[in-house]
């Protein structure tokens, strides 16, 4: 089944060229189907690129999904046209009275910024608090995972001395957990972050299910017992050249970045990078949509209640 997005959204043409079934709102309105309603809070500067990446992963599901895009505030963007934001993004005050089946909060280039110095920190806290009563399951990605751990568990910011950049092997920890259905025992996923997520620290200070870990990158995937909060510390949505573009950007800014690990053939940045995580990314999002959202959410979102969820679900 397709994702439902505005007819004029730039991602629509990109995904159609990739043979991904995108249903325009004009056609979806004629079908008597209750689609899942998923809200994406896009914190990345290049919003068109990021929204396309997430829409690509959301499309790989038999469920029909109605996607809405949310911006954190109304500050002008240096990397996204104002017209695009005005046409396709909602402000929080226009959605705060509504309920959603799923919420995705993207990463943000704030790895070296202290939480108290993030200009929209209070607003982000408001949205995360709102989600507890208005969203069935929230997916926190990369920087958002660290922010979520701070706001939900009061865990302080833990920063690595050097940036973690590359594609790393991970081992699953609970082979029968719904989020891991279909996963190989070991799988690859990209990381690009300064945050540090050790399994020992999360096990000691939270009640999260630790689902996938890396000997180098630490915890990759964790979730609350009720599956209402899912934390992904890497970037399963990345395209094949995303890490390369970040590496080239840092070089251009006069930095001395390390070559992303296990990304270029023979670790030579002159070689064309290879995306080795694509299948895992699609499977992770399909599992989240099915087991954390669709199987948990009420049919009528007007009857959404926190009482519908227990730690034993």
Automatic annotation (TrEMBL):
Pathway: Amino-acid biosynthesis; L-methionine biosynthesis via de novo pathway; O-succinyl-L-homoserine from L-homoserine: step 1/1. Substrate binds at residues 163, 192, 249. Its EC number is 2.3.1.46. It catalyses: L-homoserine + succinyl-CoA = O-succinyl-L-homoserine + CoA. The record marks 111 as: Important for acyl-CoA specificity. Keywords: Acyltransferase, Amino-acid biosynthesis, Cytoplasm, Methionine biosynthesis, Transferase. One of its GO terms (molecular function) is homoserine O-succinyltransferase activity. Pfam families: HTS. The keyword Transferase applies. It comes from the Bacteria. The record marks 192 as: Important for substrate specificity. CDD domains: GATase1_HTS. It is found in: Cytoplasm. The active site is at residues 142, 235, 237. It is an enzyme of class 2 (transferase). Its main location: cytoplasm. Transfers a succinyl group from succinyl-CoA to L-homoserine, forming succinyl-L-homoserine. Belongs to the MetA family. This is Homoserine O-succinyltransferase. The gene is metA.
